[in-house]
Amino acid sequence: MNYTRLTKTALRVFLGFLGLTAVIAIVSVLGGEFGELQAKIIGSTFTISAASICSMSCAAFIAGKNKSVIGLSGMGLAVVAALLLIAGIWPEISSETYWKTTASLGVSAIACAHGFLLILPNLGNGKKWVQTLSFLSIALLALMVIAAMWGDIGAEVYYRFMAAVGIVVGLETVSLPILMKLSKGAPQIRERLMLEQLEDDIYIDSAGKRFQLRAL
User: Is 68:99 a contact under the CB 8 Å cutoff?
Assistant: First the structure.
């Protein structure tokens, strides 16, 4: 499977539905009418756009790390979550279990996309632990959000801890571009050596120093 093409397709879908959302919003505003139908259409297009973004992240992870099973799992979560959300928007499903399931899949898809983006860059062996910690932090935050939805947790200390994990995730996300910049280091300065051929594979530079060259 060509994952580069898949990424481009997801990007085109995202841009297309984003443009459609903007057109619908503009027509509704200018026409003075923004009813339930327009809200459902905008909600559906935003959902597809979000699923496309998650799919792009997963496709980039597959292409960069060559781990198709994990990446395709993230794509599957995004697609299923989007389909469930759209299916729930139009007939207005009121089942609490349905919406909790949809939200859980959506949180999982976003967590996968976020985690894949953070572990995709090559920071070198000395900084890989930061990426591993970031991925684990994102997974922990997603699990805590899902547990709060299903368990109806009311303990304040739980949400304080969840907020602390969220702050750590934000810090890791902001720090990664800085670590990428530091990993590149200072640019190497290349010197140009000018040689003049004396005979066969014997060359001489401007200082009179001789060199013997051969093809590698």
Answer: no
Q: pLDDT at residue 206 above 70?
A: yes
Query: In whole angstroms, what is the distance from residue 100 CA to residue 98 CA?
Result: 6
The string of pLDDT tens digits covering residues 116-128 is: 888 877 776 667 7
Decide if 51 contacts 109 (C-beta within 8 A): yes
Which secondary structure element, helix H or strand E, spans residue 198, and what is its range?
A: strand 196-199
Amino acid at 178: I
Given the DSSP bridges, would you call strands 210-212 and 196-199 parallel, antiparallel or unpaired?
A: unpaired
175-198 exposure pattern, b = at least 16 Cβ within 10 A, e = fewer: ebeebeeeeeeeeeeeeeeeeeee
Average pLDDT over residues 176-186: 68
